[in-house]
Amino acid sequence: MEPTALLSSRFVMPSRPRALALLLLELGRPEPDLRRVDQLVSSDPALAMRLLQAANANYFKLTGQIHGVSEALAVLRLGQVQAMVASAAAVPAYQSSPDFDITQFWAYSLDCAKMARSLAGLLRLNQQAAFTCGLIHGVGELAMRAGMQQAVALDAKARPLDLKRSRVERRALGFCFTEVSAWLSRQWHLPTLIHDALLFAHDPFHHESHEPMAGVVHLAVWRARARQARLSENAMTVSFPSLVAEVMGLDIDLVLQQDPIDWSLQEPGRSLL
């Protein structure tokens, strides 16, 4: 299947049930806590995607200018946000399989977003855009799995969150999940910065148009996937994308120092927001 055909097919990304439930509760209060709403939406790739798509619509005359959830919440009315959350709640839950755990995917996406934001802060780049890129960079994988049996078949060569997944996809299909995420971001009228960062994330500095944010996403994806794989120190050193890091003036120690502390993972029995 060609990417254009894939994107023309209906794809509805599922949201995290816990985030939806907490958002509906918060938005139902007489005076919702906007900081809490921002935090909950930012923990869910599907909801963040919906809000960004709505805020970048032609109606608000801000197409391509809204980079993050907090910016989107400043544009949208809470009634609109509540309607989007209710609509998301009506989408059937995603059925995980032995090869693809949606709960793991959500946790990984949020981890990647936090890492990207931290790296962007270190490099004095747009942190909201970096967080968004990290959060939604993997939605292309879900779209591919929903519309391409060939993508699912690649699990035999590399699991969905494997470090070499993008290389396996590009070799077999001619494109990878971050490129599909970029094509989707263009359909949603997201900023060019986000589109370019996702489009070139698999190989940030191979093209004439060098977008530093693509390097941020590349490194954040590496770190989040290395964490998922529980790589040893030696394995991380071997797999570290040193050429990308060197161009950006970073090394492995500096990248690892940006690891976000997720206090929800420090206490048994607690889950991500």
* CATH-assigned fold name of the largest domain: Hypothetical protein af1432
- Classified by CATH, the class of the largest domain is Mainly Alpha
> Structural class, judged by helices and strands?
mainly alpha
User: Sheet bearing the most strands, described?
Assistant: none
| Number of DSSP-assigned strands | 0
Q: Radius of gyration from the CA trace?
A: 18 Å
- Mean of residue pLDDT? 89
Label the overall shape: globular
Helix content: 55-70%
CATH architecture of the largest domain: Orthogonal Bundle
Q: Roughly how many Å apart are the termini? A: 36 Å
Number of domains: 2
- Work out the strand percent: under 5%
What is the CATH superfamily of the largest domain? Hypothetical protein af1432
Number of alpha- plus pi-helical segments: 17
Low-confidence stretches: 263-270
Helix and strand element order? HHHHHHHHHHHHHHHHH
Description:
With 273 residues, the protein is mainly α. It folds into 2 domains: 17-89, no CATH class; 102-261, Orthogonal Bundle (Hypothetical protein af1432), CATH 1.10.3210.10. Helices cover 60% and strands 0% of the residues. The protein contains 17 helices and no strands. The chain has helices spanning 3-8, 17-27, 34-41, 45-55, 69-75, 78-89, 102-123, 127-136, 139-147, 149-153, 165-173, 177-187, 192-199, 212-228, 233-239, 242-247, 252-256. The longest helix is centred in the middle third of the chain and has 22 residues, at 102-123. It is globular.
Provide the fold topology.
Blueprint: H1 3-8, H2 17-27, H3 34-41, H4 45-55, H5 69-75, H6 78-89, H7 102-123, H8 127-136, H9 139-147, H10 149-153, H11 165-173, H12 177-187, H13 192-199, H14 212-228, H15 233-239, H16 242-247, H17 252-256
Helix pairs in contact: 2-3, 2-6, 4-5, 4-6, 7-8, 7-14, 8-13, 9-12, 12-13, 13-14
